[in-house]
Amino acid sequence: MKFTHNILIVDDKVENLIALERLLSDLDVNCIRAMSGNEALKLILEHDFSIALMDVQMPGMNGFETVELMRQEKKTRHLPVIFISAIYTDSYHQIKGIETGAVDFIAKPIVAEILVGKVRIFLEMHENKMMMQDEIKRRKESENNLKKSQAELEKLNLQLTKNLAKLRISEGRFKSLVMTIPDIVYRIDPDGNFTFVNVAVSRLGYEAANLIGRHFSEIIFPEDVASVSRELVLPEFAGKRTDQEKAPRLFDERRSSVRKTAGLEVRLLAGTLKSNGNRDDDEKNTVIVEVNSAGIYSVSRGTDDKVFLGSVGVIRDISERKIIENELEKHRDHLENMVEKRTTELKATQAHLIQTEKIAAIGTLAGGIAHDFNNILAAILGFSEACLQDAEKGTDLAEDLKEIFDAGNRAKDLVHQILAFSRDVEHVFAPVCIKHIVKEVLGLMRASLPATIEIKQSLRSDDFVTGDTSRIHQVLMNLCTNAGHAMAENGGLLEVVLEKVVIQQKDIFAHPVLHPGTYVKCDVKDSGHGIEPKLIKRIFDPFFTTKKVGQGTGLGLSVVAGIVGSHNGAVKVESEPGQGTVFSFFLPFCDISAENALECEADTPTGTERILFVDDEISIVKMGGKLLTSLGYQVTAFSGSMEALAAYKAKPEHFDLVITDMTMPKMTGEQLAASMRKIRPDIKVIVCTGYNAGLDERAAQEKGIQAIIDKPFSKQSFAETVRRVLDQPGVHP
């Protein structure tokens, strides 16, 4: 082993360091210089040295002091140090050097042979020391490795002992499991003779001990042996390649890979083997079983040679399962019919969902156009009503204005009906004349029905009922639409009859839902194909329809029944196949008294208060200002919410009431009302809206809005609302 020696040479003169390096050049060493004691102390921490040559007389820290500090460090405590001095050469200083920790003292001038000889000796001593330390280290490592190996061996022996104990327990559990599971577990030798069978085989009437040494074919139904025995089956597959599905399945299987036998169905004969080896055969005791089997092999140590030891398998009785499968097969047609029926129902449900989405789309569209359309109607109705009041009664102008006014009201009702159809709106019950609704519905139907269908009406009643106009309109639309569908192919007659009837106690049997009293009865008749008697009871069920998929949702008549029921009425149907259908609905009669009639003709309230009117439609601004002025009020009108707010900020006490549109650019009516209430909390506010989708009376009042007026509005209703709000007690924040 070759060592590379580092020698520390310390002297405060460079020429002395160079001289020492030259003297030691023949020793193949690495000299590292230090020109002070402090530098030497730093170098001993960075390098490993074999010996140090140190001058005694140095500025700052002399050689003695440097060595004393070196001896305090564990790393350099035993480092050989030779002092070199030209001044301190007396015995006193030599002894002091030895006491300090030096190994020798050389006086200058230096004799090269002496210095080199001494250094060589100490280098050899260092090499021997290092070699001895390495040897000691190697021996300790060997001893540690030996102890570690012994510990590992003891640990492995302990683990092996534990594993053997666990293996015995596992073998015991496995044996117990095999002997107790309900399935038959078997093992056969390469010749097909049983070498093991668990006690579950007793369920077939065999004793496990009597089967040992017997051939497996003795318990298989004779006709099945040829299809499960390797000896008889494999010749048929000689030279053929099969996939996993078509590969032969065998009781005495040799394969152990993925192609091993799984799910082999075979018949076993239950019975008892006699002492002579014969079996009591009884074909009635045949049991259908499922067999899973695989080959088992032993592998010689150090080689890949495998030796076939036989087959193992599990036999499961599936007789009950086969009985259930046969029963399921018998009822398959019934199940398929049920699935087909359910599929049809699901398609109907899907069609209903699609229709619901269409209705939602209509609702979105209707809500989008309602605001603008109602603004237009508000201007038409407002100006036409004002002109009608100024026109001379009985003139052609008055009659024309009356037609315009009535047409605007019909358009107003039509918008409300579209919104009621497309989304859930609040329904208001009030006295309704059904005669007007019938006329409007038949007018709409005429445009949608083919010319082959004749429409006839017999309206014998001008009486009123208490109800919701839009919902009664929906009832008539649904019934007339169904009548049109019934006559779509061959045409026919659609007739609507309206009359007042009295239901007496004796008539209750024919109308069990109704109470004795006066009703308005409406018949919708068609001359279509009629309804089968067996379907009459189901026609009002939700989603029931006789139409093809995509032609109806099955909701029309159920909606009719629900609406009429909510009006405390009843629906009746009469039909015969080929003779047409009559749907009749009864609604309770409403007696409009003279007092109510007078209330309808009550005087229009007026006033003199100051009103700020705001709407982004200029026509509405003109109409509203004109209407309020005609009622006696002092009106300040704006077509922009920001301009109105600026005017209000300038003179907040100048106004008694603010009437604002809901939907406006830059600032909505709701936001405008909030801004004004911050300035003056007691200001009264009315909001006008062409389409209100989210603000009801309660929510409005919580936000400081006293009333909501739906556009278009009549002069009477508008005047009454304005007067009612102005007459309310003071508003508090």
How is this structure best described in words?
The protein is of the alpha/beta class and about 725 residues long. Strands 11, 12, 13, 14, 15, 16 and 17 form a seven-stranded mixed β-sheet that branches. Strands 2-1-3-4-5 form a five-stranded parallel β-sheet, with helices on both faces. A hairpin with a 6-residue loop joins strand 9 and strand 10. The chain starts with 5 loop residues before the first strand and ends in a 7-residue tail after the last helix.
How many strand segments?
A: 22
Q: Kindly estimate the percentage of residues that lie in beta strands according to DSSP.
A: 15-25%
Shape descriptor reads flat
Count of domains: 5
Largest sheet: 7 strands, mixed
Kindly report how far apart the N and C termini lie. 103 Å
Count of helical stretches = 21
Integer-rounded radius of gyration: 57 Å
Residue-averaged pLDDT, rounded? 82
The share of residues in helices is 40-55%
User: Any idea of the CATH class of the largest domain?
Assistant: Alpha Beta
The low-confidence runs, each spanning 5 or more residues with pLDDT under 50, are 273-277, 549-554, 594-601
- Secondary structure category: alpha/beta
**What fold name stands as the CATH topology of the largest domain?**
Heat Shock Protein 90
Give the name of the CATH superfamily of the largest domain: Histidine kinase-like ATPase, C-terminal domain
The CATH architecture term of the largest domain is 2-Layer Sandwich
